[in-house]
Design a protein that fits this description.
The complex is a heterodimer of chains A (about 300) and B (about 190).
Chain A lengths: L1 H18 L2 H73 L4 H11 L4 E10 L5 E12 L2 H16 L6 E4 L7 H4 L2 E6 L4 H4 L7 E5 L2 E2 L3 H10 L5 E8 L2 E8 L7 E20 L2 E16 L17
Antiparallel strand pairs in A: 1-2, 2-10, 3-4, 4-5, 5-6, 5-7, 7-8, 9-10
Helix pairs in contact in A: 3-4, 4-7
Chain B lengths: L7 H63 L1 H12 L6 H15 L6 E9 L8 E14 H14 L3 E10 L5 E13 L2
Antiparallel strand pairs in B: 1-2, 2-4, 3-4
Chain lengths: ~300, ~190
């Protein structure tokens, strides 16, 4: 009996030993994990397929939209380029210095007794500053003072004109100062002269109680009047004396930092005879410097009056 | 309790199983799951990218429509500026055009010579060039010259006068004039 039990015990131990075979257990574990991994792979593959189908749908949508977007982008780039180029071109156009208004102002300053012989002007590359050299001859009892009158007129014409008025020569062809008639030629809209209802062809006799015989005199008187003060014009309109009131105010200027200086002013030996009157002559070279105000110098057609001859 | 004691053979088998397991994991992640995940992530990124493009495309198209409305004035002005200069080499058309212009202003003699051309510094004007010219008017009446200059400055916005030289001639009515002008011309 004891032997039989002992044999049974050994058989059981042997069976247990067989069941505990590590390779078998290992293989079973590996197989189990393998199955789990396979399932995980399958699930991932399914998700991938799902995403692929989503990608196909999005790609198909994009294929429909892409040509339109590309065209829109190209057009937007083109339009941006046009807008930018036009903006830069406009700045260049607006910043140009207009010579015609300057010539017009210059022509207004030149009286028959202070003629120009040459003019040379240049503007800087940035169109901000202008330099002009004017050469000429003046004639009269005091030819130097005729040249000085031209200098003063240039300063006043190119600089601040608080009245907003331009005058012209008398119809006889004589200068206003010689004729004694100062005729209104142009009035700047919104200026004191316009508000006073001064009109073209009015003849200015007095300004602020002072007799006026020349444009330089008028501008000189106006420059002495305080801003916002009311002053009286005595004029002849259609031959009838009339009084008008204007309020002096700061007028927008075309040019700033105006400097007009004599480079040369010398008497000449030449004597001229004009209408039986003997006149001395002087030669002058004026240098004109000023800065430009692009917004205030539109091109205008210069007046035919007072041109250098 | 029965002691758990492994035989040499069993230990070898256990080691073999462990190695097999490690190899299985390596093969699985490197050759199966890894590429699959990479492919899936790539597709996800592509979807996100396309989705962004699709979303922004609506904005892009709306922006272009808006820009088109905004740029109406600029487009018209740009077209007008372009038409100011005819096609072809400027040297071929500018001098005759100046001659005709001054002839119409009653200044019969006008000669334009090309001094050179330069590119603009501004990036916006990369398609445009600056041409410098000298215009000689051997004989011009001052009044006519003034009017001609005003008309030139008004009718040629792409032209600017940089220098002007006027010299009185023996005939007091006439002046000899030299103008240095710059024109802005689109590259051909």
């Amino acid at each position: 009996m004891a032997l039989h039990l002992n044999l049974l015990h050994e058989a059981i131990s042997e069976q247990r030993q067989r069941q505990r075979d590590p390779l078998k257990i290992g293989m079973m574990v590996v197989a189990g994990i393998g199955a789990l991994l396979f399932l995980y792979y399958g699930w991932n593959a399914y998700r991938t397929l799902e995403i692929r189908s989503r990608l196909s749908a999005v790609e198909s949508d994009w294929a429909k939209v892409e040509p339109k977007v590309t065209t829109a982008q190209k057009r937007a780039a083109e339009l941006t380029n046009i807008i930018n180029t036009t903006r830069v071109l406009d700045v260049l156009i607006e910043d140009r210095f207009y010579w015609a208004p300057f010539m017009q102002k210059l022509s207004r300053c030149v009286a028959p007794n202070a003629q120009l012989t040459s003019m040379e002007g240049s503007v800087t590359d940035d169109n901000k500053a202008v330099t002009v050299t004017i050469e000429g001859v003046s004639a009269g009892r005091e030819p130097r003072s005729a040249a000085e009158d031209l200098r003063q007129l240039l300063i006043e014409q190119l600089g601040q004109n608080s009245l907003g008025i331009q005058t012209r020569t008398a119809p006889s062809g004589q200068s206003a100062s010689e004729n004694g008639d100062l005729i209104v030629d142009e009035i700047t809209p919104g200026s004191p002269a316009a508000e006073a209802q001064l009109q073209k062809d009015d003849i200015i006799r007095k300004f602020d109680g002072h007799d006026v015989k020349s444009f330089s005199e008028l501008l000189g008187l106006a420059s002495q009047v305080e801003s916002k003060k009311r002053v009286e014009f005595e004029i002849l309109r259609d031959g009838k004396p009339t009084k008008l009131t204007a309020q002096i105010k700061d007028h927008p200027v075309d040019y700033s930092d105006v400097k007009v200086q004599f480079k040369t002013l010398e008497d000449l030996d030449t004597i001229v005879n004009v209408g039986g009157t003997t006149m001395a002559m002087a030669r002058y070279v004026l240098t004109v410097n000023f800065n430009t105000h692009p917004s205030a110098n539109p091109a205008t057609t210069p007046s035919a009056a007072r041109t250098p001859k | 309790m029965i002691p758990f004691k492994l035989t040499k053979d069993q230990i070898q088998k256990l080691g073999l199983s462990t190695m097999g397991f490690v190899i299985l994991l390596y093969v699985y992640f490197s050759f199966f799951l890894g590429p699959l995940n990479r492919s899936r992530n790539g597709m996800k990124d592509k979807i996100s990218d396309l989705q962004d493009k699709l979303n922004s495309s609506k904005g892009e198209m709306a922006k272009t429509v808006h820009l088109e409305q905004q740029a109406k004035a600029a487009t018209t002005r740009f077209a007008a500026l372009k038409t100011l200069n005819p096609e072809g080499a400027p040297i071929a058309w500018f001098p005759p055009r100046i001659k005709v212009f001054f002839a119409n202003q009653q200044i019969d003699k006008a000669v334009a010579k090309l001094d050179g051309n330069t590119a603009f510094k501004q990036a916006e004007l990369s398609e445009w060039m600056k041409y410098n010219w000298t215009i000689d008017l051997p004989q011009a009446d001052f009044d006519l010259l003034g009017k001609a200059l005003a008309n030139l400055e008004n009718s040629e916005p792409l032209l600017s006068i940089s220098k002007i030289k006027i010299q009185t001639l023996t005939d007091p009515q006439s002046q000899q004039v030299a103008l240095n002008v710059a024109t802005i011309i689109q590259k051909q």
